[in-house]
Amino acid sequence: MFDKSLFPIDPEKMMEMFKLPDITKAMAGMKLPQFDAAELMALQQKNMEALTRANKAAAEGYQALFKQQLHIFEQTMTELQAEMRKFDPMKSPADATKQAELARHAFEKAVENMTALAEAAQKANSEAMEIVNARVRDSLEELKAMSEKMSG
Prior knowledge:
By secondary structure, this protein is mainly α. It has four helices and no strands.
């Protein structure tokens, strides 16, 4: 058996200090709002539909971006091959000038294409975020209305 005289602290009393009060007694006097479960489910359904629309918009935007990248790559390669067939390194320095001009043109086109692709990606992201933001705003208004209806 445990000899309490060896320790000045009573472990049983110590355990009593750490017991949690009965929560049901503490909450008995509190009035918690009652939410309409069907209304909450409808709200969550709208949230899921908005996320689905946002994901679809983003996917469509990225798919269009990928197609645009592929088109640009094919077009650039076709133009480059056509120009390279015209180039003859055995000819005069004028051909070297043409080659430099071709390289400059290719660089400018690449920068232009990258800018267009970046803008397309930003547009896809913006469209998806607008769908989510609109749903968040609507959801907050719906929760506010639901809360007012319960308290009124």
